[in-house]
Amino acid sequence: MLPFKLIYHDNYDLHLGAHVFPSQKYRLIQETLLREKRVEAEDFLAPEPAADEDILRVHTSEWVRKLKTGALTLTEMMRLEIPHSKEMVEAVWLATGGTVLAGRRALEDGFGVNIGGGFHHAHPDHGEGFCAVHDVAVAIRRLVADGAIEKAMVVDTDVHHGNGTAAIFGDDTSVFTLSIHQENNYPEPKPPSTVDLHLPDGVGDAEYLRILSRPLRKGLDEFQPDIVFYVGGADPYCEDMLGGLALTLEGLAERDRLVFAEVRARGIPVAVTLAGGYARNVMDTVRIHVNTILAARDVARKSCLHAAH
Ligand SMILES: [Zn+2]
Fold this sequence. Notes:
Number of helices: 10
Largest sheet: 8 strands, parallel
Structural class: alpha/beta
Helix content: 40-55%
Strand order of the largest sheet: 2-1-3-8-7-4-5-6
Bound molecules: zinc ion
Radius of gyration: 18 Å
């Protein structure tokens, strides 16, 4: 058994067919974890769809109505870059419920992992780059409304800048946003995060880890969040079709261990979401996300040992 819960639902799949966004990856991650006996069936929790009331803590009623009725304009559909369908909207509501649940479980168990979510390009009044609803922002606002947390930090390691996160929390001093991404890539413009680490093309493992570690530690020490939401993109991978960085599978796993170890060393809970991944071979994307979950397991076990001594 894992020392924390994995949040997953078969209906996370957006059923996009032959789209660059491999939304079947969620199912493949779950299957791989079980097939390789990394986890047991009892490690999983199924989420409920997010409540509209919670989605509306971040998004405009106009955008929610458009998503629910399919009344997107052509421009809105082109910006979203995935076709609108009832299944897609249900999957997004479900994944958002999953991130809320991951946040709650993280507060109890130290970690909570949603095998989905990380839709960091979604804005209050529109969707962008495969992201219709900003699940992490919804979860943060819900936990704040519950009085469960006061301050949150978002650590976003997707290869693309977290523009939705930055736009939503730009004026909100209770949320610290850190994005490490390829500068010369989507999206443009990039509204400022609290800390933006703009990387040149082709950055590899060692340089990436060096650039990330100090601002991460400084942010954690100075801001002292009540929870960290990790947006763990698989797309800084060297074989990614939409990314231009050069991290290896091992470097990506090291990135996850670094973030989890630094956060948990300070006793701060971590809620994990997955975000993007467009490797030429979808099983590489699956492997990177599986490794994120195993990194959480390893760090969780280590912090249990420390606590016991
Ligand atoms: Zn991405």
